């Protein structure tokens, strides 16, 4: 079955929205701090059970899936017609939105992975020798910011896909014009 632009667009958008939802829920479920349990020369931090780490990793996974689908959708040969990459990048607006999509994807991954890993470290390494420790958690707001950037990223991939469609049409129109002029020269000779 041949892939259509509508199916791929829907896939990119759906995966981006799921990533956004997981990121926002992870931010909302993150505990503010843990419970301090003092011991002999140590402090143990006990954190409530929460799905922050799992939701953070799921958000990253769906963001990666959305971005990979968005990237490959740009260069996919729709209707068995492939277009050289340099023909797509001749379009200035396509090049700009392609780079913005890459940048927002990278920034979203950073803002989702960083607090998720920090939160996982706090949950697993919860014994401190500093008796002044206040049971830290990952910085608040990063997961939510990463969630919004993952949604933005999927939208930029969709804009780049629309612009790739325009560049594709321009390329085939150019081929058709050049092909007609070559045929006309052959017929006149």
Folded structure, characterized:
71% of the residues lie in helices and 5% in strands. The protein is mainly alpha-helical. The protein has a domain at 5-32 and 50-110 and 142-179. The protein has helices spanning 5-29, 52-75, 85-89, 92-124, 142-188; strands at 35-38, 43-46, 127-128. The protein starts with a helix and ends with a helix. A three-stranded antiparallel beta sheet has the order 1-2-3, with no helix packed on it. Residues 182-189 have low confidence and may be disordered. It is built from five helices and three strands. A hairpin with a 4-residue loop joins β1 and β2 (43-46).
Q: What does the overall shape look like?
A: rod-shaped
As a whole number of angstroms, the C-alpha radius of gyration is 24 Å
Mean pLDDT: 88
Structural class: mainly alpha
| Unreliable sequence segments | 182-189
Helices, by number, come to 5
Distance between the termini: 44 Å
Strand order of the largest sheet: 1-2-3
Helical amount among residues, as a percent range? Answer: over 70%
What is the chain-wise order of helices and strands?
A: HEEHHHEH
Largest sheet: 3 strands, antiparallel
Strand percentage lies at 5-15%
- What is the number of beta strands? 3
Keywords: Membrane, Signal, Transmembrane, Transmembrane helix
InterPro entries: DEAL/Modifying_wall_lignin1/2, DESIGUAL
Pfam families: DUF1218
Subcellular location: Endomembrane system
């Amino acid at each position: 079955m041949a892939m259509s632009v509508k199916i791929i667009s829907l896939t990119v958008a759906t995966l981006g929205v799921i990533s956004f939802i997981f990121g926002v829920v992870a931010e909302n479920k993150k505990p503010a701090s843990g419970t301090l349990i003092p011991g002999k020369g140590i402090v143990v931090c006990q954190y409530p059970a929460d799905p922050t780490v799992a939701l953070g990793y799921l958000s990253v996974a769906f963001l990666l899936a959305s971005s990979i689908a968005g990237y490959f959708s740009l260069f996919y040969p729709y209707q068995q017609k492939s277009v050289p990459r340099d023909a797509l990048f001749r379009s200035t607006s396509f090049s700009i939105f392609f780079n913005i999509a890459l940048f927002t994807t990278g920034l979203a991954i950073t803002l989702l992975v960083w607090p998720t890993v920090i939160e996982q470290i706090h949950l697993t390494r919860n014994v401190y020798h500093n008796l002044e420790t206040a049971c830290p958690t990952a910085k608040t707001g990063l997961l939510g910011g990463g969630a919004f950037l993952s949604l933005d990223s999927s939208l930029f991939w969709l804009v780049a896909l629309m612009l790739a469609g325009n560049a594709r049409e321009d390329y085939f129109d150019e081929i058709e014009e050049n092909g007609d002029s070559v045929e006309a020269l052959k017929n006149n000779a």
